[in-house]
Amino acid sequence: xxxxxxxxxxxxxxxxxxxxxxxxxxxxxxxxxxxxxxxxxxxxxxxxxxxxxxxxxxxxxxxxxxxxxxxxxxxxxxxxxxxxxxxxxxxxxxxxxxxxxxxxxxxxxxxxxxxxxxxxxxxxxxxxxxxxxxxxxxxxxxxxxxxxxxxxxxxxxxxxxxxxxxxxxxxxxxxxxxxxxxxxxxxxxxxxxxxxxxxxxxxxxxxxxxxxxxxxxxxxxxxxxxxxxxxxxxxxxxxxxxxxxxxxxxxxxxxxxxxxxxxxxxxxx
Length: 269
Prior knowledge:
By secondary structure, the protein is of the alpha/beta class. The chain has 8 helices and 15 strands. Strand 14 (254-256) and strand 15 form a beta hairpin.
């Protein structure tokens, strides 16, 4: 069975244990503002930056877009260009604002190094790259494909994360570190998925059409995991560090090695 994927405008799934510790998205903006105010007092050198980025913004997504446009800007690609991309993406798909807050909640729930919400909001390039992808996916779905591909290209240059804008991504996704992640055009990622650095969801180079992996809800892809071809990674699967997966993995399994095998001794995956 293919993994269930929610569109970015769908309501969050209820009752999932993996997100029990996550703050509701409606509370995240207020938490972020509280932490920003505290930081302005504790770290005066950052006062102007934090105040401009967070405290001067009317809502979470405006603050996020303000931050990302400046991270992406370059002499040939000014901040105004990226601001227009984020504004357009939000108009096309207002659900990306709530999805971004849920992603930040997922970071807090799953990353013990995230001491508060402000640090990943300002500093985690995996989080930044994912939010750029959500914007690019909205542009892609609306037929603004050159804008989406330009955003993908710039994100890969700045954050070292290369996700094709066609890729469907579920809710509460956590990209840790981010460096070296590559995800191909026809891949799909479910809800509550965690992806560590140097992960590849790619094709085998021998096929066209639907040729990339489908990752089910709650899966964990550890450092350097490579999954190739149109294969299904079932719900709750764990793929060990450095493993190479070439075949479908059933729900709940843990696979390791090259080629990947179940730690219970099942057939190669």
